[in-house]
TrEMBL record:
Membrane topology: Multi-pass membrane protein
Pfam families: DUF1232
Chief subcellular location: membrane
Keywords: Membrane, Transmembrane, Transmembrane helix
Chain ranges of the DUF1232 domain: 78-108
Species: Zhongshania guokunii
Localisation: Endomembrane system
InterPro entries reported in the protein's UniProt record: DUF1232
Name of the protein: YkvA family protein
Amino acid sequence: MLFFSKNRAKHVLDEGAAELDDASLQKALSNRQRIINKVMNSDSLAPYLSQVGTLFNLVQDYVKGEYREVPWWSLGSITTALLYILMPMDAVPDFVPIAGFLDDAVVLKLCLDMVAKDLDSYRLQKQIKTESRADASADDALE
């Protein structure tokens, strides 16, 4: 299958989100470096490296209990997209020249589009938390 549609990508994300469990979250986190390495070494995925880092941070903060404002479906889609990158034999096997990572990129891009609002909320909360810590440190330094 050399053509991977947006509809197929949405189906992959919906199925994965519906099946999300703690084991999937842990699997994604424990394979963080392998997934990041695949992203860095793929022309199709490399442009998303920063966003992949944010996705991992959100999942990690959720698991730690530091950020719980993300809907379960969004968390499931994020985890599914990350784990999809790891799968060598997905819709278009990764060993297929040029096209091998295109389906991974379609799934990742669609996921990023679908959870954009949740990612914006997460980034905003992280920014507020960072600024709050900086203000507290500045106050401590003045005392």
